Amino acid sequence: MYEGFELGSFLAGLPLGLAIAGIVLFFSWRKGKKERRYDERFYAIHNWARSFSWVVTTIVILVAWTVVMIIEPVGTAFFVLMTVYMLHMISYIVGAAIASNKH
Length: 103
Prior knowledge:
mainly alpha
């Protein structure tokens, strides 16, 4: 820790910030529910956006992995990117299994 850091202020501010964020999220969710923002169209758009984002993230990880393999020999960065890619794919498998059980 450095000299200017006060643990008491941090421990008081963290829960307060989380509480304020929770209150704001609750009221925005409630307002959205009253305005019927969370209908089938909302969920369809979000599902499409999530799948598009997943594909873009996969491509970015693979490009970064290739760049790391070309620039430097097999090292820490290679294994970190490989682990991120594997976790990304495992999360997709788990999500697909959950979604197929629901439908």
